Amino acid sequence: MGTTSDLSGTPSSAGSLSSPGRVPPDHAVTARLRRHPGPRHLPAGAGAAATADGLTLGALPDEVVQDVDDLLTKLRFLEIKTAQWRGGVWEDRVTGVHWLLVAGLAKGEHQDHDDFYMRVRRENDVGGLHRWLPTSEDQRLLRQETAARFLTAWELAVQRQMLDALREIQSGGSTRIDIPHPRSDEGRLARLTLIVTPVREPGYEADEIELEVVPLAAYAGSSLSWQLTVRALISLSPPEQGWDRCKNSYTNIAEPGAWTICVAELEKIVTAHELAESEPGRHSHYTHREHLAGNTIEGHAVRALCGAFFVPTQNHERLPLWPPCQERFVELAD
Question: Residue 271 pLDDT more than 90?
């Protein structure tokens, strides 16, 4: 048994969403170019929108997107022009993804050695254009980035659901929230129940809150269900270690009216399309020494004696021990 700090965090689960097969296509390419050491996937955003027929003009006034078949005969490119910059874009017809394979300046009336067109012409003449195509590693990184993007969008949706639920019962009551899987074809991931109970007794006034997280059996104990739990707790009241846990239920206590203030703060974050940030824990805990080092390196959560789950990343020697953990450790010694 050893102590470790309770810095909040979530296990990385982007890999669990990536697929070795077809990558969903992005529907836009950016036209602001810079030099790249190799192929780069063009993310959705301002610029030339991809259509079934090719590329259309984007929102920026100096953008020009055109076919450059007159220059390239061995590998078909689409050319993006913005100010003095030029870029060569290749479309993967299998996935529908557009890749920026080459970028550079148009200069010296196209006679300069480093001119974009001169570079492309030299590679074309020696049959080297295919060396610019994305490698298996590029494809792997694209799948990882796509998964991360889907996961972020899903967490933003979960955060909005938590806001809607808390807004509904901020002064008292209960509500249920069905959380979909990040992959829309997977259906529901979990059902959450949120309860706010105003307590008004002589000498004690508080608004108690309880969150119950019940994942479908197929996802029970998964890193994705844990990430959902952490995102829900962060949305309601960080740090997540400040919640008491009993199996699938998490409880917290706040002063009267605190959840109304929380709604206002969360509304600002949701409106800005940002994710509420986790906060570092303030205490160290006792947890089992087995696999502790590996979990720290890989970012996996561990369970403390007091029942708290957290990703160990802080230096526990700088933090005070959490009293409930200390009490249970003493009981074990007896």
Answer: yes
Exposed/middle/buried for 201, CB within 10 Å: 0-12, 13-18, 19+? exposed
**Phi, psi for 247 (deg, rounded to 5):** 55, -115
Pair 36, 103: CB distance under 8 Å: yes
pTM confidence score? 0.62
pLDDT of residue 314: 65
Which one has a higher pLDDT value, 300 or 203? 203
Helix axes 223-236, 136-169, angle to 10 degrees: 40
